[in-house]
Design goal:
The protein is mainly α and 114 residues long. The protein has one domain. It contains four helices and no strands. The N and C termini lie far apart (55 Å).
């Protein structure tokens, strides 16, 4: 197999996986917003505070899932980068996104205990 073809295939896979992650996050935000507006307009949000926690838990889980896809896309991207500078930048991005996933996961754990 020609290396240029493999490089092109990996770029397509990387962008596809990244787009899937973005779509997952976007759909989670839309669902959370719809749930919030439903509870707000129906008057249930004022009387029951756990509704907000449920929305936050669901949104947090979706954010973590989407971030995992984006991190996977970044890892695929490291196979196609030609220099160490780009690999270093990708490593920093992966570390930041992993820390963000970790902090969201910790918040979800504390919310689920409540």
């Amino acid at each position: 197999m020609d290396w240029q073809v493999l490089h092109t295939v990996l770029l397509i896979v990387q962008r596809s996986v990244s787009a899937i992650g973005v779509l997952i996050i976007l759909s989670g935000v839309i669902v959370a917003l719809a749930q919030y507006l439903y509870y707000l307009l129906s008057g249930q949000l004022v009387t029951q505070g756990e509704k907000i926690n449920t929305i936050r838990l669901n949104l947090g889980r979706i954010l973590i899932l989407g971030l995992e896809f984006i991190v996977a896309a970044d890892l695929i991207g490291t196979t196609t980068t030609p220099d160490y500078y780009a690999v270093g930048l990708l490593a920093i991005i992966v570390i930041v996104r992993t820390l963000l996933s970790f902090s969201i996961n910790r918040e979800l754990m504390s919310l689920s205990k409540e």
